[in-house]
UniProtKB/TrEMBL annotation:
Domain Longin: 6-134
Keywords from the named record: Coiled coil, Endoplasmic reticulum, Golgi apparatus, Membrane, Protein transport, Transmembrane, Transmembrane helix, Transport
GO cellular component, one term: Golgi membrane
Localization per Swiss-Prot or TrEMBL: Endoplasmic reticulum membrane; Golgi apparatus membrane
UniProt xrefs under PANTHER family: VESICLE-TRAFFICKING PROTEIN SEC22B (PTHR45837)
Recorded family membership: Belongs to the synaptobrevin family.
Boundaries of every V-SNARE coiled-coil homology domain copy: 149-209
Record membrane topology: Single-pass type IV membrane protein
Protein name, entry field: Uncharacterized protein
GO molecular function, one term: SNAP receptor activity
One of the GO BP terms on file: protein transport
């Protein structure tokens, strides 16, 4: 079953909303640690997506589905559209097709309601009220053996070929490396600007030292001429 869900913005990894674990969830004790991994995964996906030549934050076409193994018991499943990542954690034996159907339902509803507000969101969990829809949808996918879910599994309506399976540690490490590269690039850019300002200041000071004595003498001559020639008449 979907254990918890995070929806985040890819441009900066901001968490827009997140499902809340209830007291009845059998894995609520493990959720906290996997939430931390999920947020790292979100940030890593944000950096990885933006480095991709196919990245387009305005595209409404879903990106390929990705399954990332998280230990022996669980898997993260996620996809993205319109610059938003939709991610859920399930047990490893939970059918992937149901996980992707679940994410599709969340994606369609979330974008239909908040599409025009995503870019302007300024604080974490700004759309936390969407959790009510997440919880309602989660209940429909809790048991993979219900008639509704078995029909989904037996149908041929879904193309499940665009799926990538990765290891979460590889994704997080790659994302952190990309983040480090971005930070180093930003730092080098800042240092270059600082160096350019320092060079311009040094050049001004050099010109000042070069021409200031001559200008000073010229002004002094003008003053002397004024007092001894013009005022002396």
């Amino acid at each position: 079953m979907p254990i918890f869900t995070i929806i985040g913005r890819l441009s900066d990894g901001l968490t827009l909303t997140q499902s809340m674990a209830s007291q009845s969830d059998p894995y609520r004790k493990e959720v906290q640690e996997y939430e931390r991994q999920a947020k790292k995964l979100l940030m890593s996906s944000a950096h990885e997506e933006q480095k991709s030549p196919l990245y387009n934050q305005n595209s409404s076409q879903p990106a390929p589905y990705v399954t990332a193994e998280a230990g022996d018991q669980f898997c993260f499943h996620y996809t993205s559209a319109n610059g938003v990542c939709f991610l859920t954690l399930t047990e490893k034996n939970y059918p992937r097709r149901l996980a992707y159907d679940y994410l599709d339902e969340l994606r369609n509803e979330f974008l239909s309601v908040y599409r025009n507000q995503i870019a302007s969101a300024s604080r974490p969990y700004e759309f936390i009220r969407f959790d009510s829809f997440i919880q309602k949808t989660k209940k429909l996918y809790t048991d993979s053996r219900t008639e509704r879910n078995l029909e989904k599994l037996n149908s041929d309506l879904r193309d499940v070929h665009s799926i990538m399976t990765k290891n979460i540690n590889q994704i997080i490490t790659r994302g952190e490396n990309l983040q480090n590269v971005t930070e180093k690039s930003s730092r080098l850019g800042f240092e270059a600007q600082s160096y350019a300002k320092q060079a311009a200041h040094a050049n001004r000071m050099r010109l000042f030292r070069q021409y200031a004595p001559g200008v000073g003498v010229f002004i002094l001559v003008l003053i002397l001429l004024y007092f001894f020639v013009i005022r002396g008449r």
